[in-house]
Amino acid sequence: MKEMPQQLDEVMGGKSIVDTDIEGNTNEVEPASDSNLEKPLNEAEQVSKKIEFIAEKLGSEVGDSEQLLKSLTNLEELSGAEEESHIAEKLEKNNLPQKLIEVLGRVMHAQEHAIHQLDGKYDPRVLKTVGLIGKVLGGMGGLTAGMTFGGLPGGAIAAVAGSKGGGYSAIRVFDRLAEKLPQRFKEKFMPKTLENQEGNESIEDSIENQIEKNTETMQRIDAKINQINALPLEKRHRIWEKFASNPKTADIAERINLTAGKYKEVWHAFEKKYPHAAVGLELTTHMGIPLMTKGMLDPIIVEKIILGLEYALSAGVSEEITAAITAKLKSAKDHLFGMRDTRNLENN
Amino acid sequence: MVNSDTNNKEGEKDIVALVELVHAVQEHNEVLKEILHDIEIARKEYDILNT
Lengths: 348, 51
Fold this sequence. Notes:
The complex is a heterodimer of chains A (about 350) and B (about 50). With about 350 residues, chain A is an all-alpha fold. Chain A is built from 14 helices and 2 strands. Chain A has helices spanning about 5-10, 45-75, 80-95, 95-120, 125-150, 155-160, 165-180, 185-190, 195-230, 235-245, 250-275, 275-295, 300-315, 320-340, and strands spanning about 20, 25-30. Chain A has a two-stranded antiparallel sheet with strand order 1-2. Chain B has about 50 residues and is mainly alpha-helical. Chain B contains 1 helix and no strands. Chain B starts with 7 loop residues before the first helix and ends with a helix. Chains A and B meet through α1, α2, α3, α4 and α5 of A and α1 of B.
C-alpha cells in the first residue's frame, strides 16, 4: 500500500471534511486524530479508517455537486431565444455538453465498481454515501444536463448515466426546474398541444401532492430496508423468512401496492406533461435494474421497482422503450424469483 | 467492520476504487464549474452586444 498516503493527500486536497446525509444536508465533522488512538491499529483497521475517511471526502464532493447543480438551475431566466442561442453556442464551442456526459459516465462506472468492491466490508454509511451519488448526479445532474442542452441525444444519455434510485425524486426536481426553462427548451419536453390551462394546473397539483405523500412513504420504506441491508447476510435471510411467514406480510404488501398505485397516478400525469423527460426517466430506472439484481439490495426493492415500472408501462411509453424494458423486467423477475426459490419462500 | 480475512491487496483495491470515485465526482464538479463560468461570461457578452 505504498501509494496510499499520496492518494489520500490528493483526495483530501486541503478541504474540510463534510458529512452529507441522505437529504443532502451537510455537517462539519472532525477527522480522526492519531493522538486519539490508544493502541496501534492492525492493517484491516487501518484500511477501514482510510475508507471511512475517503467516504467523508466523497460526501463533501457530492455536497459540492448539489450546490453547483442548484446554482445551475437557479440561473435567472434568459431574455429570449437569441440569448439562449448565444449561450448554447458558447457551451458547445467549448465542448461542455459532451464533457458533462463523459464525466457522468465515469462517475457511473466508478460508482458501480466501488459498490461491487466495497459491499459488505465496511461501515454501512460508506456504501450509503456511495449510493447517494446516484441520487444526486443521476436524478439532478442527468436531468439538468438533459434540460440545459435540451434536445441533444446527450440529454437522455446523461440521464441514463446516473441513478439507480433517483428517478422518483427526479420527477419532483424536474417539475420544479421546468418552470424556469426558456420556452424553446420547454417545448422539447412537452407535448406539442397541451390541454387547457385549467387542466395543466390540476396536473401540477396532482403531481405535487402525490409526490409529497409518496416520497415520505418511500423514504420510510427505504430507511427500514437500509437497516436490514446493514445486517450480515445470514441475519438478513432469517428476517426475510420471518417476514414471508408473518401474516402481517399481506398488509405490508398491500401498502406497497398502494404506494405503487399512487405512483402510477403521479407517473401518468408526469408522462402526459413531459413525454420526452418521461422516456429519460424510464431509461434511468431501467438501467438501475441490472445493478439491483446483482444482489446489492434486498429483493423487496427490486420488487418495488418492478412494480413501479409495470405501472409506468401501463401508463404508456414509447414502443421501443417498452420492448427494452419488458426484456429487462423478465430477466429481473427471473432473478428475483430465483432468489426467492433459494430461500424456500415460494411455498409460504 | 472489516472481515478478518480481508487481505492487504483487497484493502488496496477498496481504497483505489473509492479514490477513483472521488476523482470522478471532482471531475464532474469541475465541468459544472466550467459550465457556470461559460454561462456567466456568455450572458455578459450578450448584454454588452445588445446595449
